[in-house]
């Protein structure tokens, strides 16, 4: 076992504070790596604040993790010391069910995916995430970060990147497809960049036109304010795919109306409360309402390789660990362009 520094939440109301945690001994199939950067995902905040149920405190959040391998177990074949690697939202799963076998570990029906934090690992100990100096993970749940992607920019790809990549691939985003992204935040801005890189026609639907210049620079072809009722008249029946990255409740009927025949609206933002689905806009154009959650290990690797090939990386603001609590406040106020990434050097000490 090794002891590393971490930033932990001890309750829903206290600020995160520096502490120490232990990491397990490196087993035969394990990869140990120094964490260099960890992204701050909105899910981290929901979890530590107990908004998705009471977590198992202390919580060391962080599931957008990038670093450099320091040790590998005797049986490890995929990685060696010095490799650039990452870990996303889960560190294990049952490995036996049909979904695991198909590389859809995020939809594991056996044990369920074992979260990178606030879960219990195979060895019975709690899992702790990326707001820390180092981590030990089974090689099958470790991703290779291509050399051309700097580690700080690689971190947010492990959750925000694949959350958008997976539905874009599943619903065949590409040339000739009209895609809309609702919300230009941490998730949305990756949606714009990825859909653009795939060759699709990309429209941002944002509450206001405040970030329009950014949106167009990041690859959007069009940009509309959803506070303007004209937007919904003008874009009626327009899109093949709409990706909703907003975690607030929306008027689903209005957005479904923007889909073309056979179009699909995909929920990615996970609002806390249920939303009403009016049947007429669904049936009228044979539209679908769906959802999607991160991506499996093979698809996450495919996403990283795609981002390297197409030079797609997130817009980030690097912070020190002692700024995490302020960063949380700023995420809640949508005051970040577009992802906070923690430089964890001081936690490696
Ligand atoms: Zn996340
Ligand atoms: Zn499984």
UniProtKB/TrEMBL annotation:
SUPFAM superfamilies: GroES-like, NAD(P)-binding Rossmann-fold domains. It is an enzyme of class 1 (oxidoreductase). Its EC number is 1.1.1.2. It comes from Mycolicibacterium peregrinum (Mycobacterium peregrinum). InterPro entries: ADH-like_C, ADH-like_N, ADH_Zn_CS, CAD-like, ER, GroES-like_sf, NAD(P)-bd_dom_sf. It comes from the Bacteria. The keyword Cell inner membrane does not apply. It catalyses: a primary alcohol + NADP(+) = an aldehyde + NADPH + H(+). Belongs to the zinc-containing alcohol dehydrogenase family. CDD domains: CAD1. Pfam families: ADH_N, ADH_zinc_N. Keywords: Metal-binding, Oxidoreductase, Zinc. Its cofactor is Zn(2+). One of its GO terms (molecular function) is alcohol dehydrogenase (NADP+) activity. Gene3D superfamilies: Medium-chain alcohol dehydrogenases, catalytic domain (3.90.180.10), NAD(P)-binding Rossmann-like Domain (3.40.50.720). Residues 11-342 form the Enoyl reductase (ER) domain. Prefers aldehydes over alcohols. The lineage of its organism: Bacteria, Bacillati, Actinomycetota, Actinomycetes, Mycobacteriales. This is alcohol dehydrogenase (NADP(+)).
């Amino acid at each position: 076992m090794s002891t590393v520094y971490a930033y932990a939440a001890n309750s829903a109301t206290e600020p995160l504070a520096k502490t120490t945690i232990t990491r397990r001994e490196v087993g035969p199939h394990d990869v140990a790596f120094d964490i260099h950067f960890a992204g701050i995902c909105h899910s981290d905040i929901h979890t530590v604040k107990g908004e998705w149920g009471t977590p198992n405190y202390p919580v060391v959040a962080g599931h957008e993790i990038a670093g450099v391998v320091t040790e590998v177990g005797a049986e490890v074949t995929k990685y060696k010391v010095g490799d650039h690697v990452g870990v996303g939202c889960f560190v294990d799963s049952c490995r036996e069910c049909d979904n695991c076998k198909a590389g859809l570990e995020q939809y594991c029906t056996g044990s369920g995916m074992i979260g990178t934090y606030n879960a219990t690992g195979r060895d019975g100990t709690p899992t702790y995430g990326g707001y820390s100096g180092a981590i030990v993970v089974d090689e099958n749940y470790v991703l290779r970060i291509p050399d051309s992607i700097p580690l700080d920019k690689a971190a947010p790809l492990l959750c925000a990147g694949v959350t958008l990549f997976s539905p874009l691939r599943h619903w065949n985003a590409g040339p000739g497809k009209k895609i809309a992204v609702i919300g230009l935040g941490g998730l949305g801005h990756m949606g714009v960049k990825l859909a653009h890189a795939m060759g699709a026609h990309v429209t941002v639907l944002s509450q206001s036109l405040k970030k329009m210049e950014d949106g167009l620079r990041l690859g959007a072809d069009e940009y509309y304010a959803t506070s303007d009722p004209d937007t919904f008249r003008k874009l009626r029946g327009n899109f093949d795919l709409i990706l909703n990255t907003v975690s607030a409740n929306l008027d689903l009927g209005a957005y479904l109306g923007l889909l073309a025949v056979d179009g699909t609206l995909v929920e990615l933002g996970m609002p806390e409360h249920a939303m009403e689905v009016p049947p007429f806009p669904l049936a009228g154009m044979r539209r679908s309402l769906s959802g999607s959650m991160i991506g499996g290990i093979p698809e996450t690797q495919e996403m990283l390789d795609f981002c390297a090939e197409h030079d797609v990386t997130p817009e980030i603001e690097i912070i020190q660990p002692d700024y995490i609590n302020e960063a949380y406040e700023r995420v809640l106020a949508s005051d970040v362009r577009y992802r906070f990434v923690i430089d964890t050097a001081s936690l490696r000490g």
